[in-house]
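Example record used in the benchmark description.
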Amino acid sequence: MITPEFLELLRCPESKQRLIQAPPELIARLESERIAGQLRNRAGKAVSKSIEEGLLREDGKRFYLISTGFPVLITEEGFDL
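Model output (structure tokens):
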């Protein structure tokens, strides 16, 4: 879990919009898509790592995975929603 203070500092690397903790419903949906082999990141690669938490851009159009406690804020690694 990312602390509120750290989260306040984080921004989308592309749009510079604020990021928020992704809701559990979105995490569950993305994990289901990953298991079904339907989830691809912006680079077009299939996602193999389990999705347990992530960050959502404030406009709701981009998701960034949190991996082992660290946000992966690489544009190509994000998911378009």
